[in-house]
Amino acid sequence: MGKRANRQPMHTTIVTIGGFASLGLCLGIAHALGGAAGTARGALAFLPVWLIGSGINMYVGVRRGRSAAEEIPFLLVVFAVPASAACVVWWKVAHG
What we know:
Blueprint: H1 2-63, H2 68-94
Helix pairs in contact: 1-2
């Protein structure tokens, strides 16, 4: 179990970076379609999409032998970091 545990922080980092890339994609598409108002909507639309993506990541971890109790802290980090960035973008765009 030592090798698998050692790879988890790198996997978490990669998935979190993927979350930021997904956020950027959502914001870019939303801005192209609707300007600043679209950007705010894109930030909010990202949240359920990323929650599903984070949940799939947790599911894969559980299927590969980790317990749900072991995966939940990683789910929280993987979801919360890009989601908080999305909330900041939404707040800045929507409230000036």
